[in-house]
Specification:
Strand content: 15-25%
CATH topology of the largest domain: Rossmann fold
CATH class of the largest domain: Alpha Beta
Structural class: alpha/beta
Largest sheet: 7 strands, parallel
Helix content: 40-55%
Oligomer: single chain
Strand order of the largest sheet: 3-4-2-5-6-1-7
Distance between the termini: 66 Å
CATH superfamily of the largest domain: P-loop containing nucleotide triphosphate hydrolases
CATH architecture of the largest domain: 3-Layer(aba) Sandwich
Radius of gyration: 27 Å
Length: 679
Amino acid sequence: MEELKLRSYQEEVVQRALQGENIIIWLPTGGGKTRAAVYVAKRHLETTPQAKVVVLVNKVHLVDQHYKNEFQPHLGRDYTLVPVSGGSKEKDFFGPVLKKSDVVICTAEILYNAMTSMEETKHVELSDITLLIIDECHGTHKDSVYNKVMACYVEKKLKKDLPLPQILGLTASPGTGGAKNLLKAVDHVLEICANLDSAIVSTKNYVAELKQKVPRPIKSFDIVEKRIKDPFGDHLKSMMQMIHEYMTVPPDFKLRECGTQEYEADVVILEQRGVREDNRLLAQCALHLRQYNDALLINDTLRMMDAYRSLEEFYINKFITAIDGTDFFLTGLFQENQVEMEILARDSRYENPKMGQLESTLLKQFGPSETSKGILFSKTRKSIHCLNDWVLKNKALQEAGIRAAVLTGAGNGITYMTLTEQADTIRNFRKGTVNLLIATSVAEEGLDIPECNLVVRYGLLTNEIAQQQASGRARAKDSQYSVVADKGGREVRRELINEHLEVLTGQAIAKVQDMSFREFRTKITELQTLAVFSRKVTERNKKEKRSRYAAASVQLLCRNCLKPVASGSDVKLLDNVHYVNVNPDFEKHYEVGGVVILEKSFDDWEPGRTINCRKCNEKWGFEMKYKKVALLPNLAINKLALETPDGRTTVKKWKDVSFTVEDFSMEEHRQNNFPDLFD
């Protein structure tokens, strides 16, 4: 077993935790927060009767990572450790697993589900735990699962419902919560402290050692002059203008500039308005305008061909049956301009100058004789796949020895990665088989990625927390942190604001640390009492909203063709997750498509085929086979509209519908669908 030694600054920040206090450890990325937590856990296990340590993480891959890299090597010889993630069978027996283990490492979702479960094999109480370690604890706010767990803790604490576990939070970047001045930034830090019922601790006596062990990278702004001419982008804008004229923008509505996030927000609102007002022309035009705007945003960041292909892909994959003149106009407009758009997109004279600057930035660090490692951060999964394709096809980058691989979040779908693929990519990066990761925000925090010589942020507008996390990845000596952006662009402004907010965060934390014990605890209790009251009011309002209409009085419509297809009373909630239509007559409204493939399997159900509107072919969801008997359509609410007694509306998630969805009953399903078996 590895010897567990701490650096001086780590020893300093764990002292209060070793005395049994609730604390948040604030150290930069690479400062060894997890190692400090292992040390606290070890001392806790040695000194606390019937100790139970639970380590919470906010991403699935961190369960095994913390288990294998930190906790098991230092605690595995003397204690029983169990990693529990969504794919492991232990989650279904979380109660017994916790009782038999000394340390459990799991996602916050698994612990919260166990706390709220009525099943004996799953249920646990907070009082069963003696030390609760919360990784990346700055996420303990609003409706996050971390905050749901801690909301239970705070309520019990205020009721003096003891015992409760000791809390140990870990963060590199508490942030300011959007605050731009010191007073409000202090309020944000206090709110995080209140949510975690913890004081915040940082090194005071060993700042020099910390700076030596975790050096800051050398920062540079690699600024690009905007291209003088952009005929491809201009052509897209002229097509968008034709759509504006065809649909007639409502006189009371002002569309902002094309090719911006603000314009995207505007057309999203227009589409919702079109659905509400039974104006299919407006809704469909807005939907297509969003795709053109996406293409403009891509054109601003990536290659022109990437922008063109995003539009082409939309029209190829949108197998919507034309049902009126709007469909003919929109598809016809694209088809009539398709050849000219492709010709313009291939004209290298007008290629995006940012790509040239990005090439120069990478070539400064990489070369045939160099052993550099870097991360290129971009915003979307689509953009990183495009950048990876660009690197593979760029002769200069290949000659410089760049071996790139993408790193995205885990999930289902073409642009997601499996957990195994994630692990393989990081392993190859560590070995040097891959020396450039092209990544989304998944690589900013938590992942055990070795120190890098270069971090590049490309086409990103993020807050100070994400910026600090990304910067912390450049930990090698004399490492570089580069921001590639347009001259005077929003990315540069945001980066400079974030630098100010990073300083403001430190000032706010210092103010909180300077409070007297009495002042701090009084403030924390006030905030906790207010939070409990606010949650109760919010929950009451949600319940009232969910029971606003009788389910039978609400009709579900296809969001594309606006045809009524089901009643709200046809929908049932299965296993507290899936919203399924149990009416056997519903099948006359849809056709089935291809088989849905998911990365992981489930005990009670398996996916079937996609289901599409019989009239317009809009995809509504997929069939699911439940307990090998029931074949149920699993519906996506964002593909449907709601006709309520007070008018038509749309929602993003099922939890936002304004009627109560009853739980699914297998007994009822059998009687309704197989009545002859019950005679």
